[in-house]
Amino acid sequence: MRNNRKKRWYDNNPRLALLLNLLKNQDKECRDDIINELKEIITDYDDSLIDRHVVDFPMTEKRRWYDKDPYSWLVINSIKYADKKLLSKIIKHLTARLL
Questions:
Q1: How many other CB atoms sit within 10 Å of the CB of residue 90?
Q2: Is residue 5 in some structural domain?
Q3: Under 8 Å CB-to-CB from 93, ≥6 apart: which residues?
Q4: In which domain, by residue range, is 40 found?
Q5: Would residue 3 count as lying in a domain?
Q6: Is residue 72 within 8 Å of residue 31, measured between CB atoms?
């Protein structure tokens, strides 16, 4: 049977895809804490990354779990624009928090 689900940008990184799926399944309080931590990691690394790319973030009718909360939407979409070093920091943090 074919999988007709559209590939998400983070599916190209199996580790990140796994971690974001685990994050999705956390209770709201835990998920919100981790999202706040990720935003801090992103802004500590590059305080203008979010501002530079926010206009490129998708504004679609797709309602992924992170689309339902503006803060989660901002942070998860920011990860798409992370360079390798920042992405490594994000994956390391998510691994420590979720595994």
A1: 22
A2: no
A3: 37, 38, 41
A4: 10-98
A5: no
A6: yes
H-helix or E-strand spanning residue 94: helix 84-98
**Distance between CA atoms of 32 and 94, rounded to whole angstroms?**
13
Rounded CA-CA distance 27/25 in Å is 7
**Which string of b and e fits 55-68 if b means at least 16 CB within 10 Å?**
eeeeeeeeeeebbe
Profile the chain (99 residues) by mean pLDDT over runs of 10 residues: 70 98 98 99 97 80 81 94 98 99
Q: Model pTM?
A: 0.88
Q: pLDDT at position 61, please?
A: 64
